[in-house]
Amino acid sequence: MVRIINIVLFIDACRSTGQKSGGLGIGEEKQQGVITFYSCSPSQVSYEIEEIQQGAFTHVLLNGLQIQGESNCATVERLYNYLCHQVRQLTQKHKNYPQTPYAAIEPATKLHYILLPKFANLTDIDVLKKDALNAEFVIKDFSLARQYWRRVIAAVGDDDDALNAIERLAKQNLTPQPPSLQGNGENSKPLSLQERGLERGSSEGEQGRKAAIAKTRELTVDLGQGLTLELVRVPAGKFTMGIPPQEREIALENGLKNGVDPENLQRWLDWSTPQHEIHLQEFLMGKYTVTNAQWRAVMKTNPSEKYDRKFQGDMQPVVGISWYEARAFCQKLSEQTKRAVRLPTEAEWEYACRAGTTTPFAFGNNITTNQVNYDGNNSYDDAPKGKYRECTVDVNSFSPNSWHLYQMHGNVWEWCLDRWHDSYSQKPKRLKSNGNEVWGETNVDEHDNLPHSVRGGSWCYDAFDCRSTNRCWYRAKDSDHDIGFRVVFGSSSPVLSTVRIDKRDFIERTSESPDSIPVM
Length: 520
What we know:
- By secondary structure, the protein is α+β, with helices and mostly antiparallel strands.
- 28% of the residues lie in helices and 16% in strands.
- The chain has helices at 56-64, 76-93, 122-138, 142-156, 160-172, 204-217, 245-257, 262-270, 292-299, 323-337, 346-354, 429-433, and strands at 7-11, 15-16, 34-38, 46-49, 54-55, 102-105, 220-224, 227-234, 237-241, 276-280, 283-286, 341-342, 413-419, 451-455, 472-475, 483-484, 488-489, 497-501, 506-510.
- The radius of gyration is 24 Å and the shape is globular.
- Residues 15-27, 175-205 and 492-520 have low confidence and may be disordered.
């Protein structure tokens, strides 16, 4: 039996005579592992445009698949962006009913899938390699890693990284996998050579696996009381930070549709401009926002208790946390683990949230309340309305983004380390070459109540506010039942500049430990 790894469906359905129906169109169902492009959103219909004697979706799709050069549609993500923009433009031009293509892409890593290998560029290949390394060394899904490396070979031929990885993964079939690893807090103990599957005098390949296991140990922190804090290795790389013109146009339409004051709306969107390229070194970020149980284990207090009981579940994010209190947690955890712990910079946060995507959300051009916890009464673009849960949900709810980070969109606003700035226009050049460096003074008096950045939206905000590029702020002493945070740890990468928190200042330091996993 032949296993089909990737299936891509294009469905131009729901054709009518031009009269918009009141029911839902095709496109609400999802098939795991299948990439499905629908000609319109679930609440719309598709139709034929008389002047071109084709449906707008089919017409744009055929054109998009032929584009060469830098604006090609080689990847799922670029084709999706092209379809959404061009179909919208075409239907507006012919003054027909609005029609916006809809995609069901599960899992989110399929956004990086290369549909047209001969048109793929170096950035496409780089993203694919990062996904492959993440699958192999972090989530330990060797079958998925093989798929990614084979896609690299399909796109560029005999790539040394891919060929070496395929050979390395072939050995995994001959070697038993290591058991679950303990954290590196006070109560953890080293695994024996036998437990690691490594004997004395093992081969270089096995020694390499031993080093990879040591890297994996770094991703789980023992908090005591049977609790751990899981980290995700965010790869080094670069990205374009800020809102693209096309997203701004749609966000503006969406905000006006939901009754937002035009002047305020323009000002909020200006906060995410101008776009600029950011370079980052590898860092470790909390897989989830910090939970009530984790906060109690470290800080011995319970800030969520001042709110309704529906916010107090062990696996729900801790809320009611000021910027100062979030930093105090980082300081305490740093003392316990003897590792540098801090809040993420804004650049780190957006880079991790995007996970290699350029769409408004890590899941595509819009979201639903089956993916993100927000006020479902106010959807984004043409997505259908959804639930309004009126509280936070467990941090491991829904699917993660393609870098295995959960709920970067919605649930709670997340504190960043940076001082608030009304735009990126005055951002120093050095911060663009090092997104791991904080923007603004952090050595502040505890009575200082200046604003600091928050990201991600929350359970009581609209889908508009959950976009990857969206920025907002609260004052340092502010706290509410929709504000939480996640942490960043120092990595063992030799070139990563991390930030250590102490009472006087933040001191940059560099780890000298070897890095066994290749960084793309």
